[in-house]
Amino acid sequence: MGCRRSLDDVADNLASLSVGGSVDAGGGKPAAEDEAVRLSKLGRKKDFKYMERVRGRLINVLEGLELHTGVFSDAEQRRIVNCIYDFQERGRKGQLRERTYSEPRKWMRGKGRVTMQFGCCYNYAMDKDGNPPGIIRDEEVDPIPPLLKQMIKRMVAWRILPSTCIPNSCIVNIYDKDDCIPPHIDHHDFLRPFCTVSFLSECNIVFGTELKIIGPGDFSGCASIPLPLGSVLILSGNGADVAKHCVPAVPARRISITFRKMDDAKLPYGFAEDPELQNLRAVPLRRQQLHDIPSPQPAARIVQPPERVMPTQKSMQVPAQRSPVLLNEDDFPPLRSSSSRKPGRR
Ligand SMILES: O=C(O)CCC(=O)C(=O)O
């Protein structure tokens, strides 16, 4: 009974995410069968490895990363991107809550990208009201849009995200050509694992305990992982907390959606969990035909020789011969200030 309901739920989710009738569109093919085919084609790569000596111990700094490919079909990606563009339009027209939509001033390559925050307002850097980085608890943003909630349901149903860490917030990044996200470790106001889903154009995400800033939007690290369209990258363990990550200047417009669960102690004041996202379950394992496919899935390109000893704990280095490119406000611009909030309160 429970199993039947779970399958029906997943079939419903698939149907609601699919476009153009790929699921049971009059052809008589049951949605659950279609789901089984989709599941059998998923790629799951979990063996990312780059050994580094960190505080005297040799560890795999990429442990905890997983790349799941083929999660969202071309048609689903188009539908999700259209939904994002609709929200962007509403943001531009001032129809979203003030801090949901942010479009920073661009003044040089690699500076600024459009972001939309749902579920919580997050500050990458100290803002003009004196709020430190982290979730701003007394700020309200728009709730996660229905289609993005369907994405969460899909990822839990397909065992990409654990049912013990269901996201209740997300941030949409719209990168125009040459936009980037500089090296960072996601704030611990958010639990692990969290994940990022890729759309519109493929790019690399770069990892390392030391990420070098070579120029504006140009970063290098020990491993560079291509992010295929419709893929989900899971970050946890060392891959989330020991290695930093960044997206160097992208070659073409790209959209990513990063889904994260907030720490209960950091929830925005008055935050109500969405009943639709409670008690989600994975589909029964026997239907999953899980595959761990080491190749020909996209692999991490190891950029430097393995087992390198870290020369310094300093995380970001600027080549001495170049003009320094420092990370500052413009890399993670504070969100627009809001006159209604009390300074410094989180
Ligand atoms: O664009 C991506 O895939 C990564 C985004 C990211 O690191 C973030 O939003 O913190």
From TrEMBL:
Region described as Disordered: 293-346
Gene3D superfamilies, per database record: Alpha-ketoglutarate-dependent dioxygenase AlkB-like
Fe2OG dioxygenase domain segment(s): 166-263
Signal peptide: none
UniProt biased composition (Polar residues): 336-346
InterPro entries, per database record: AlkB-like, AlkB-like_sf, ALKBH9B/ALKBH10B-like, Oxoglu/Fe-dep_dioxygenase_dom
Family of this protein: Belongs to the alkB family.
Name of the protein this chain belongs to: Fe2OG dioxygenase domain-containing protein
Organism: Platanthera guangdongensis
